Amino acid sequence: MGDSLFGIHSRGQLLLAAVFFLASGPLPAQPAGAPDYQAIPKLQEIKDHPAAPEFTLAVPDGRKRSLKDFRGKVVFLNFWAT
Predict the structure, then answer these.
(1) Which residues contact 68 (CB under 8 A, 6 or more apart)?
(2) Residue 31: burial class (beta carbons within 10 Å; 0-12, 13-18, 19+)
(3) Taking the model in full, what pTM does it have?
(4) Which residues contact 57 (CB under 8 A, 6 or more apart)?
């Protein structure tokens, strides 16, 4: 059973994906008119930009990647916990 659709390998997974898809329903429509900027908090620039702590992690292919490899670039870190 090498073929899969979007990483779904069994009928149970397909059924679960269909339930989540159908349960999500349509997205609510955006209200007409200008946005209410009073509801949005004012953002302030951070004066002190401390450096992120240095760390190294293994990537799925086994290589090690360090935060310093991305110095000067925008980095989005997403840590999953199970």
Answers:
(1) 54
(2) exposed
(3) 0.34
(4) 64, 65
Write the DSSP string, 12-79. HHHHHHHHHHHHH-PPPPPPSS---GGGSPPP---S--PPPPP-EEE-TTS-EEEGGGGTTS------
Residue 52 and residue 67 in contact, taking contact as beta carbons nearer than 8 Å: yes
pLDDT in tens, 58-80: 988 989 999 888 888 888 877 77
Residue 26 Cα to chain centre, angstroms: 21
Q: What does the block give as tokens for 26?
A: 């349509």
Which 3 state secondary structure label does DSSP give 8?
strand
Structure tokens at 35: 């946005």
